[in-house]
Design a protein that fits this description.
The protein has two domains: 81 residues, no CATH class; 77 residues, no CATH class. The radius of gyration is 27 Å and the shape is elongated. The N and C termini lie far apart (82 Å). With 196 residues, the chain is mostly helical. It is built from nine helices and no strands. Helix 3 packs antiparallel against helix 4, helix 5 packs antiparallel against helix 6 and helix 7 packs antiparallel against helix 8.
């Protein structure tokens, strides 16, 4: 008799387990394949930063800017990082914290420069290089321009080369090329350029 009770208990538990397993499998099949998590939106954080600045809340603006930076890093494009660099400078100007925000802008622009180079985006490299030029970082701007020249030449993209030349002229007008050189590098030098 004791054996029958144990057998009944076993069958009862096995039946409950099968039902639960079937329910779980059905739920997973209904839900479909797992979806990748949606990265946070950097643009929403930049908007929150702008609103905080409009209210005069510098602490919240700083938090929102940092959130935007983290979201842009989690993303896959260079545009978010450039937007965070631009927003960092705006935050510095409005709040009087320009000295503290310039290194943060440089950090975002440098990440954008690397990401744009990885993606082969001449426009991304030029945007970040232009920002470095504006910040007085002529060496980084020059190296970025050299990489953009290489990419545009390899793609035989005449319009991109025109945009590169315009930025080269801006840099040359300031008497700079790589910060110390008085002449522009040859196309071979551009191929050897390495971003810092």
């Amino acid at each position: 008799m004791r054996h029958e009770v144990t057998m009944n208990q076993f069958l009862h538990r096995a039946l409950i387990g099968a039902v639960l397993l079937g329910t779980a499998v059905g739920a997973l099949a209904y839900a479909g394949p797992p979806r990748p998590p949606v990265p946070p939106r950097w643009d929403a954080s930049i908007e929150a930063m702008s609103q905080a600045l409009a209210r005069g809340d510098v602490v919240m603006a700083l938090r929102a800017r940092e959130s935007a930076y983290r979201a842009a890093l989690a993303g896959r494009d260079w545009q978010g990082l450039c937007a965070v660099g631009d927003a960092s400078l705006r935050l510095g100007d409005v709040s009087g914290l320009r000295g503290a925000m310039e290194p943060e802008a440089r950090r975002a622009y440098r990440a954008a420069l690397y990401r744009a180079r990885q993606q082969g985006s001449v426009d991304g490299i030029l945007h970040a290089s232009r920002a470095f030029l504006m910040l007085g970082d002529h060496d980084v701007a020059g190296r970025g321009i050299a990489v953009a020249t290489t990419l545009a030449t390899a793609a035989n993209d005449v319009q991109a080369l025109e945009r590169v030349r315009a930025l080269q002229e801006q840099l040359a007008a300031q008497g700079r090329w790589y910060g110390v050189m008085s002449e522009r590098p040859s196309s071979n030098d551009a191929n050897a350029a390495v971003l810092p």
